[in-house]
Amino acid sequence: MIEVKNIHKTFNPGTINEKRALNGVNLTLEDGDFVTVIGGNGAGKSTLLNAIAGVWPVDEGGIFIDGVNVTGLSEFRRAKYLGRVFQDPMTGTAADMQIDENLALAARRGKPRLWGWGITASERENYREMLKELDLGLEERLTAKVGLLSGGQRQALTLLMATIQKPKMLLLDEHTAALDPKTAAKVLATTDKLVAEHNLTTMMVTHNMRDAIAHGNRLIMMDEGRIILDIRGEEKKRLTIEDLLHKFEEVSGSEFTNDQAILSK
Amino acid sequence: MTLISLLNRMPGDVAIGIIWGIMALGVYLTFRILNFADLTVDGSFATGGAVAVVLITTGVPVPVAMAAAFCAGLLAGLCTGLLHTLLGIPDILSGILSQLALYSINIFILGGANKPIGVGKYNLCVSMLQVAPSIVVAALVAVAIIAIMYWYFGTEQGSAIRATGNNPAMSRAQGINIGLMKVIALALSNGIVALAGSMMAQFNGFTDVGMGRGAIVIGLAAVIIGEVVCHALFRKHNGFILRLTFVVVGGIIYYMAMGFISWLRVPTDGLKLFTALIVAVFLAVPYLKDKANSSFRKAGRRGENQ
Prior knowledge:
The complex is a heterodimer.
Chain A: E1 2-11, E2 19-29, E3 34-39, H1 45-53, E4 60-65, E5 68-69, H2 75-78, E6 82-85, H3 99-107, H4 121-134, H5 151-163, E7 169-173, H6 181-198, E8 202-205, H7 209-214, E9 218-223, E10 226-232, H8 233-238, H9 241-264
Parallel strand pairs in A: 3-8, 3-9, 6-7, 7-8
Antiparallel strand pairs in A: 1-2, 1-4, 4-5, 9-10
Helix pairs in contact in A: 3-5, 5-6
Chain B: H1 3-34, H2 41-57, H3 62-85, H4 91-110, E1 114-116, H5 131-152, H6 156-166, H7 168-173, H8 178-204, E2 206-208, H9 215-234, H10 240-263, H11 271-293, H12 296-304
């Protein structure tokens, strides 16, 4: 279970660029929950993800993974609980290292890295099998440098790396946004497959409402650093884009009138 | 300025070239693997020489003195690493600070600006008085260091260092403590550099605090010359062992070129100028070749012919 309790984050406090990015976010994910996160630019979607990943410390509030308070753990210490895929396909892999070496690095996430072999022959065989499942032909190119792969191949590899050790939570930060539609669909299908296979608790940030509806069992919408909608179960299954747009207007619209009310006082 | 005198000085140049090549292996570790331009080496090379000479002249066995020089280099690299990771000082600047501090420290260690060893009194591992055995010993040390580096960068820790140099964001996400990896790599690199410094002092029979001046550029020269030659000979089939070997080969080529220039009676004060020129040429050649293959001027000419 993942618990996010009342977290706040303000960037550049006290300057002209001050930005209250997270404004008291509360969220509880049960094991196996697959939540998609949507919202406008600057709504705080990626910021929420980064707060959970520990890219920087939060100003207030706490983050708990299976009851463990990880709020004070730095990014690399928290990594043992988390699998992450980034928006930029370049970010998730080491370009100058081989495909198998990248997988071996991920397989040792959260373990002490000393003087054992960085990769063993039996591991290599396992990786070959795993890559076969991706159906991208990468099993034939185990010792190729990752820098030679296409964006889609790199994202699929990063997904495999993120899940090679079952993480307590999988964080996907618009991981198909930089891909062409066909490749994006394939990477999303791989995502669904891996999430289902390992029953992963997952959070997927996306700009694409269609994807947000089609994937996962839960959907949250963010605005101004808060969660303004939380739809799950049967209601989520019946959701359409029109519903979502309507709800978005409803929620942001009512906020707008509230703002006006404040200003007119 | 006879051909004989050129041939006569060659073996000695090879020996010194191998020692510079060993130092360049340390430079390769930070510059290519960690992707960190570490200027500490100018200081730590001289530190290695100073520690070794002081210990050898007080009767400490040569291998122990060399091990101590290696450890002194580790400490120097550790300082640079801590300046960078704990205090947030940019990479080049933290190296420059260590280098400057080491200049004073090296004078403290030596008790002066230079110190002779007194050749013949001790069982030195390399010496210009016995060039042939020195070449063999230096080559064996180089082979041992290459073998250890090959093993180490295949281990979990070595892989983590490579990942840190390649993609820090990915490394953090995979749970790698990148600050620790940088400190370890900088320490090991400067350990190798100081070990090379201890060998250079023994070969020359004396050490000088200015011995390491320009070492970083010589190291880069060896790394880059080695890469260019390795690529020319083996194209894409250049594994890690081959690349490390060619770093040492690069050191030898570099120093033989220097020897050739001295043989032309160029004043020794001009050698650093030539070093800089050689490095500039070898850095520029791959870039210019690439440019020649895809230049706007050519594209423009093709465009006119349409």
